[in-house]
Write a structure and sequence with these properties.
It is built from 24 helices and 23 strands. Bound molecules: cytidine-5'-diphosphate and magnesium ion (MG). InterPro entries: AAA+_ATPase, DEAD-box_helicase_OB_fold, DEAD/DEAH_box_helicase_dom, DNA/RNA_helicase_DEAH_CS, HA2_WH, Helicase-assoc_dom, Helicase_ATP-bd, Helicase_C-like.
Length: about 725
């Protein structure tokens, strides 16, 4: 299937607006770092580690980098994936004394990357993780007072800004993977610019009234957008790290691919039969695709001739537990070909050793938001074609250690039609929590220093939503409630659900439900073959009022299994450890009900953190309403009232305030019952607009919602007539 090919090595990733990594360059009068060859990593002794470090391309540029950071407020560092930026630069700065009066924060768009990088750097420093080197991601923190290098998600640092708007504790903030332009990265870039100015001019003083020390910012990127970052930070210097990239042969598919799963499977099997040893990296859009391809590869492998190498299939995606992620860094056993199935996490943020072949489906999942629905809940992960710059990054992964090959499961013509770079997330996602955060930071969302400004309509849409949630008053000022909403690591609507559970005396139930709604792993494991069996097995959890209370039933049954087996096992004198026994029982129970144990475990962790948040807000999270559904549903409505709908005579629904026509998704337990008034978690657009995660509410309860209760704060219905005004 792949016949046409081209050489795309060093050359094509360094195009007109970028440097040729082989040459020395001077840009804005700054040194270019020239590197040695990066080598595959060993996890071994401290000597091995030292050797590994000194062989990374960034190593020879150590002095230049340190002095550039010392002599400038902001520095942009550009270097190929794997050159050592993320793991080495923070150590260089630490070793050069830049942590003497402050911490170095290194932000990552993804939690998986933050954790695994912290672990790596701790290992390189020879210290236990969480001491000198720690991490902080949502729902999981490993730091101490002595932590000097802290890896965190960009979202966590934005949260810290809410508590400490000057980032007092930090001497350096490294914004890594800046090219990804996540929403939080963009918010950070704008905020960091403000903080630098305030610290410098002395506009703000520290707690003792002294002028604050300057905040150093390092922006790191793997693609060629350095000039834009430099322009944003008052034309700050750019440092290029020249890595070594081997040529990569690119093979495009000759005809358009209809089923990328099937094409990926065939391409892999063919490659495995015809090509010399070397590990394979397959880029797929999401976790489900990864799991299903892993299954097919495992099913087909026994059929290849026994003379062939063995195959080790390893998935890599955001929700994967850290112990499993670690496996991708280990060399495979002798005579085995490793095949890593990854999302775009492996594009730039995690470098996998040993890769010689890349199979690129050309797809990724992207969060998109539909402004025309006025923030109606249409914020969805959609499978989309990648950009040219992503395609180049992906193919580049095959040439890190030796010449490689990339199989693109799309035609050359499709490649040529790809956009150059991805659209920044801030221009395509729901801004509610971002705008609330900006308000808490005292910023004016209309005037904020955006690197790329979102549509005014999206900003206004979010302001209206926040006003409806009573987070803002009619003058657009932050309310006390607004500040409380922002203190939860949840979207504002769900924070409101949690807050209102206090007065409705059902916080225990609400935290269970909200934790399950928030977790990233999918709870229901369904595919076409098992759908019926799954529905049968799960029938007993079904609550007549809908999907939210069904979730509650599931969570509670899961915990019953855990705790009853715990007591059974501990009363058995010669049984194995109680914990293992109950874990095993829980696993079997999940399997029998087609539920994802990972999701339930994740929800348990989230709930622990939310309980902590509640304690800080003086909310007693133990308060329960027992089996009474009404308070729970009313709380959900308090927050989700913008996602409520009323049945029309034809059996479809009209979303309140938006007149959006929608139907109940077939996966909902209410699809047949069709109650007169519903609330829902999200909308899904396929052939029609479907509401998913649906519960029945009383029409009379709507009167109490801010949306219809115009007495509460003047006439609030006006802004809803057409989504935004
Ligand atoms: O940030 P950049 O892409 O420039 O490179 P890096 O993440 O600092 O990685 C440098 C080297 O460390 C690569 O060869 C990685 O394979 C290795 N590494 C690792 O073995 N384990 C990790 N958890 C992270 C990096
Ligand atoms: Mg990196």
């Amino acid at each position: 299937m792949h016949s046409d090919s081209e050489e795309e090595g060093q050359g094509s990733t360094s195009n007109a607006n970028g440097p040729s990594p082989k040459k020395k360059r001077k840009i804005n009068g700054v040194v270019v770092v020239n590197g040695a060859n990066g080598r595959a990593l060993s996890n071994g002794t401290s000597n091995d580690i030292k050797l590994h470090r000194t062989q990374l391309p960034i190593w020879t540029g150590k002095a230049a980098l340190v002095s550039a950071v010392k002599n400038n407020d902001t520095v942009v560092v550009l270097g190929e994936t794997g050159s050592g930026k993320t793991t080495q630069l923070p150590q260089f700065l630490h070793e050069a004394g830049l942590t003497r009066d402050g911490i170095i924060a290194v932000t990552q768009p993804r939690r998986v990357a933050a954790i695994s990088l912290a672990a790596r750097v701790a290992l390189e420093q020879g210290t236990p993780l969480g001491q000198l080197v720690g991490y902080n991601v949502r729902f999981d923190e490993h730091t101490t007072r002595n932590t000097r290098i802290k890896f965190c998600t960009d979202g966590m640092l934005v949260r810290e800004l809410l508590i400490d708007s000057d980032l007092d504790r930090y001497s350096v903030v490294v914004v890594d993977e800046a090219h990804e332009r996540t929403l939080r990265t963009d918010m950070l870039l704008g905020s960091l610019k403000r903080i630098q100015r305030e610290r410098k001019t002395g506009e703000k003083r520290d707690r003792d009234g002294k002028k604050m020390k300057p905040l150093k910012v390092v922006v790191m990127s793997a693609t060629l957008d350095a000039e834009r970052f430099s322009a944003f930070f008052n034309r700050c210097p750019v440092l290029y790290i020249s890595g070594r990239q081997h040529p990569v042969q690119i093979c495009h598919s000759k005809t358009p691919v209809e089923d990328f799963q099937d094409a990926a499977l065939r391409t892999f099997l063919q490659l495995h039969l015809d090509h010399p040893p070397g590990d394979v990296l397959v880029f797929l859009p999401g976790q489900d695709d990864i799991e299903s391809l892993a299954k097919s590869i495992r099913a087909y492998i026994p059929q290849v001739p026994p003379s062939q190498q063995k195959v080790l299939v390893l998935p890599l995606y955001g929700a994967l537990p850290p112990e499993q992620q670690k496996k991708i860094f280990d060399p495979p056993p002798a005579g085995t070909r490793k095949v890593v199935l990854a999302t775009n996490i492996a594009e730039t943020s995690i470098t996998i050793p040993g890769i010689r072949y890349v199979i690129d489906t050309g797809l990724c999942k992207e969060r998109s938001y539909h402004t025309r629905h006025g923030g109606s809940g249409l914020d969805e992960l959609l499978v989309k074609p990648i950009s040219k710059s992503s395609a180049q990054q992906r193919s580049g992964r095959a040439g890190r250690e030796a010449p490689g090959t990339c199989f693109r499961l799309y035609t050359e013509q499709s490649y040529n039609q790809l956009t150059n770079a991805p659209t920044p997330e801030i221009q395509r996602c729901d801004l509610n929590s971002a705008i609330l955060d900006l308000k808490c930071l005292g910023e004016d969302p209309m005037e904020f220093a955006y690197m790329d400004r979102p549509l005014d309509d999206s900003i206004r849409g979010s302001l209206i939503t926040l006003y409806a949630l009573q987070a803002l008053d009619s003058q657009g000022r932050l309310t006390r409630l607004g500040r409380r909403l922002a203190s939860f690591p949840l979207e504002p609507a769900l924070s409101l659900v949690v807050l209102s559970s206090q007065s409705r005396a059902c916080t225990a139930e609400i935290l269970d439900i909200v934790s399950l709604l928030t977790c990233t792993a999918k709870l229901f494991i369904d595919n076409a073959d098992t759908r019926e069996a799954a529905a049968d097995a799960r029938k007993k959890f079904q609550h007549r009022d809908g999907d939210h209370l069904t979730l509650l039933n599931i969570f509670r049954s899961f915990e019953d299994v855990l705790s009853s087996n715990l007591s059974a096992a501990s009363s058995q004198a010669n049984g194995g450890p109680a914990h293992t026994g109950s874990r095993r029982a829980a696993r079997e129970w999940c399997k029998a009900h087609f539920l994802n144990e990972k999701a339930l475990n994740e929800a348990t962790t989230i709930r622990t953190q939310l309980r902590g948040n509640c304690e800080r807000e003086k909310i007693d999270w133990k308060v329960s309403c027992g089996d009474d559904a009404e308070p729970v549903l009313r709380c959900l409505l308090d927050g989700l009232f913008r996602k409520s709908a009323i049945k029309a005579p034809d059996g479809t629904y009209r979303q309140i305030g938006m007149q959006q026509v929608l139907k109940i998704h077939p996966s909902s337990s209410l699809v047949d019952r069709k109650p007169p008034t519903i609330i829902f978690d999200e909308l899904l657009i396929t052939s029609a607009v479907y509401a998913r995660g649906v519960s029945a509410v009383h029409s009379s309860w709507l009167i109490d919602t801010p949306l219809l209760n115009s007495n509460a704060r003047g006439n609030t219905t006006a802004p809803y007539t057409n989504g935004h005004t």
